[in-house]
Structure formats: structure tokens, C-alpha cells
Design a protein that fits this description.
CATH superfamily of the largest domain: Gcn5-related N-acetyltransferase (GNAT)
Number of domains: 2
Helix content: 25-40%
Structural class: alpha+beta
Oligomer: single chain
Strand content: 25-35%
Largest sheet: 13 strands, mixed
Number of helices: 12
Order of helices and strands: EHHEEHEHEEEEHEHEHHEEHHEHEHE
CATH architecture of the largest domain: 3-Layer(aba) Sandwich
Distance between the termini: 44 Å
Length: about 400
């Protein structure tokens, strides 16, 4: 277990509030970045349901030289200190692709971690708003978050389902987080649902008949991506992602390069990934991206790598009994028929038929997406958790 002691960021003089003793300092050096990465572990590392992303992966994700997301984005990272100890952190992000899609300047915040203290939270949000207010092209109109660093990665603050162990790359935070955000003027903008599908031992006869008729009568087929088709499939996936999601709330386009990076980051870990395309007469019109749910194994690492932790990790790979659906989309022209239902049904059935798996977690799904939420319920999906994306108008707007 790491020490709770911390070194003042970069030896800079701290602007400490006399009333609270809290300072919020920007990350300027490698040592600062290490403290930024360690802060959630120092605050929540003993929480049994907190599963941090390994620090080397989060560091890589935030590195402009590594992650192509930063070719169209900028960031400012901040750590809150009291008596030279970290008590919170936050990131401010400018996503120029999001601004263009939204038609206004959005002040993104994310990577939020905070002790149960309203003064610390307020200081962090003040730092974010001040940073966005100093933008050369003009200040942000409103703040939105948490996005880590965008909706194309992990997003949302958990507001329901705190008792559940989080699926891999799903948010988990202590129950006091929403109260802190709302005390700082944050209001609900959008909720994200996550579902759990158990084994389909009781699939209805009606669903089975749909399964038989689907390929025969509609010209649809499912195609699995392979190593041989990887490069072409990454370009196809980025294009299909835009077609499937461009009309959705908060949509931000993603390039083939960034899509490829996301897969390579997943390959930092020996996860079993599966990309399946839905094709109609040879054209891809839908897709699903799965991966083995590594959450319980990553908990043993607790954000760090060591020989002992790596041994437990490799040993635990044999005991994975659930799968995570990261992405599900279908082109607008195919949504009116049974294709949406059948694609999701086929995915659930595929993994339900795998003997060693107990259930599959899927999400996120927008609260306002009534069609997909209805289909999840028809397929006996249990809504597991609800995460919230918040919004606050900037005082300078």
C-alpha cells in the first residue's frame, strides 16, 4: 500500500485558500503526473468496489504523443492539495471535434476524484472553469462531464447501482460524488444505462424462430473480424461508428487512427476481444464489440504492476466468467425492421451458449434511446447501473 504522503507539485509556491487550506495546482512535470495518477488510489484504493485502470494505461491515454485523440484536443490537469497531501484531482479538456459537432464551445471536465468535502470539489471545478475561460478562441459556454476524456472512452458519474461490482471500463465512484457535483451547481444533462444479460436458458420459441428466419429471409449475416482483416476493419469500424451514432446526443466523430489506438490500448492486457459486423448483401450495417470482463482481475492489481500482482492477474484469467459489450450500433436505414433486435439477440445468445460464462454486461445506452432500452428489456436484460453526465453554465458565458 502506498504512502499517503505527497510532495508539493513541482516545488511551486502554492496559492492556498486561508479559509480552507486547499490549493489546486496544475500538473507541470513527470512527478506531478505521477501524483495525478496516484490520487484516486490514495483516496479510494481500500474501497472493495473501486477498480482503477492500471496507471500505465491511464498515463498512456493522457499522453499527447501517444493518444491520437490529442491531435484535436487540449488538456489541463490539476491536483488539489491540503497540507501537501492530495485530496482531489480533475482534468479540463477542449475537444475541438466536439465543439464543431455541438456548434459551441464545450468545457469538458473528467478524471474527477475527490474526498468527501464540498470545498475541495468547489476548488476543482473553479480551476476547470478558469482554465476554460482563458481559451484563446473565447471561453466555454458550459461545462460538461465527467468525460474521460470523451464519450468515446469512459464517461459518466455513477448515481445508481453503487452496490454492484463495476464491469470493466465502467465508472464506479463513492455514493457521495453526485452530491458534491450537484452542490457545485452541476445539473443532469444525460443518463447512461448499463444492462446485465444472464444465460439464455429460457429463450422463447418466438425468439428462436426469429433467429432461424433472420438470415434466410433478410439477406443479413454476421461476420467476425480477424487478424487478416484488422486494418480494413478499423477503417470500416470508424466509418460505421459515424453512421450509427452521428444523430445521437453528444456524438463526437472518431478517426480510424484513434479507433486503432483504442484497440491497441485494450491489447496492453491479454483480453479476449471479439468484433462482429452485421452485413446485408456484403455491406456492413451494424457492429458489436465485446471483450472479456477483466474487472475482478484488475482489482488485484489495484492500479499497479508488480511481480506478485502480475502472477495473480495471469492466474485469474482462467476464472473469467463474464463478458463486456463495449459497442453496439446499427445503421439508421436498418433500424425499422427486426435487424436491431436480432443483432442484439444474436450477441446475447452467442455468449450465453458459451459454457464458462455466467453473464454479459452491456453499455452504455442513452436514457433517451427508448428503442434499444426496450429491446434490452425484452431480452430479459436487467438494468444494472445508471451513470450521469452533468452540465453547468459557465459564469462568464
Amino acid at each position: 500500500m502506498m504512502s499517503n504522503a505527497a510532495t508539493p507539485i513541482s516545488g511551486q509556491a502554492m496559492n492556498i485558500s486561508r479559509a480552507t487550506g486547499i490549493s489546486v495546482e496544475p500538473v507541470r512535470s513527470h512527478r506531478d503526473m505521477r501524483l495525478f495518477l496516484e490520487t484516486p488510489l490514495l483516496l479510494h484504493g481500500d474501497e472493495p468496489l473501486y477498480v482503477p485502470l492500471p496507471m500505465f494505461m491511464e498515463k498512456d491515454q493522457l499522453a499527447p504523443a501517444r493518444n491520437p485523440f490529442w491531435k484535436h484536443a487540449e488538456r489541463g490537469l490539476f491536483v488539489a492539495l491540503r497540507a501537501n497531501r492530495p485530496v482531489g484531482r480533475i482534468a479540463a479538456v477542449i475537444d475541438h471535434h466536439l465543439d464543431a459537432a455541438a456548434g459551441q464551445r464545450v468545457g469538458v471536465w473528467g478524471y474527477f476524484a475527490c474526498e468527501d468535502n464540498a470545498d475541495v470539489a468547489q476548488a476543482l471545478f473553479h480551476a476547470v472553469e478558469d482554465w476554460h475561460g482563458a481559451r484563446s478562441e473565447g471561453g466555454a459556454v458550459f461545462l460538461r462531464g465527467p468525460l474521460n476524456p470523451s464519450l468515446n472512452y469512459t464517461a459518466g458519474m455513477l448515481v445508481e447501482g453503487f452496490e454492484h461490482f463495476p464491469p470493466f471500463m465502467n465508472p464506479w465512484n463513492p455514493p457521495y460524488y453526485p452530491a458534491l457535483a450537484e452542490a457545485c451547481g452541476m445539473e443532469k444533462e444525460q443518463d447512461l444505462f448499463f444492462y446485465r444479460f444472464s444465460r439464455l436458458d429460457n429463450v422463447s420459441v418466438c425468439h428462436q424462430e426469429l433467429d432461424k428466419d433472420f438470415t434466410r429471409n433478410t439477406g443479413f449475416r454476421l461476420r467476425r473480424s480477424t487478424k487478416a482483416t484488422y486494418d480494413d476493419d478499423m477503417r470500416l469500424l470508424a466509418d460505421l461508428y459515424t453512421r450509427c451514432w452521428s444523430g445521437n446526443w453528444g456524438f463526437t466523430p472518431i478517426s480510424a487512427e484513434e479507433m486503432r489506438y483504442s484497440w491497441l490500448v485494450m491489447r496492453h492486457l491479454p483480453t479476449v476481444a471479439e468484433l462482429i459486423f452485421l452485413e446485408q448483401r456484403g455491406e456492413a450495417v451494424g457492429m458489436i464489440l465485446f471483450g472479456a470482463d477483466l474487472g475482478q482481475i484488475l482489482k488485484r492489481l489495484n492500479g499497479r504492476l508488480s511481480l506478485a500482482a502480475l502472477w495473480h492477474f495471469m492466474r485469474g484469467l482462467r476464472s473469467i466468467r463474464r463478458v463486456r459489450m463495449f459497442m453496439f450500433g446499427i445503421a439508421p436505414e436498418c433500424r425499422r425492421g427486426i435487424a436491431t433486435f436480432q443483432l442484439l439477440y444474436g450477441a446475447v445468445k452467442l455468449f450465453a451458449d458459451t459454457a464458462q460464462l455466467d453473464y454479459m454486461d452491456a453499455g452504455w445506452i442513452l436514457e433517451e434511446n427508448a428503442n434499444i432500452n426496450h429491446i434490452c428489456e425484452r431480452l430479459q436484460g436487467e438494468r444494472l447501473t445508471r451513470a450521469r453526465v452533468y452540465r453547468r453554465t459557465c459564469s462568464r458565458a
